[in-house]
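Morning!

This is the sequence you dropped in the shared folder:
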Amino acid sequence: MNERTKSALLWGAVGVFAFLALHQGYVALGGDSVGVLPAIGVGVVVGAAVAVAAYAGEARLLRRGR
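The structure's back. Tokens below.
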């Protein structure tokens, strides 16, 4: 696995855990929960979106020389 792919997947994992932590905080403060499985499902979708954005964004930044 190349470094760019590994970096994108790690950013995706950060996105999943960040979403789940924010969801847990929302529920802890008295918000209504949608359930565990739907929250995990949305977390996976958020993580996939973050991974794709990180992969594409890194290529764009490398082309610009930043």
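Headline: The chain has a mean pLDDT of 93.

More detail when I'm at my desk.
O.
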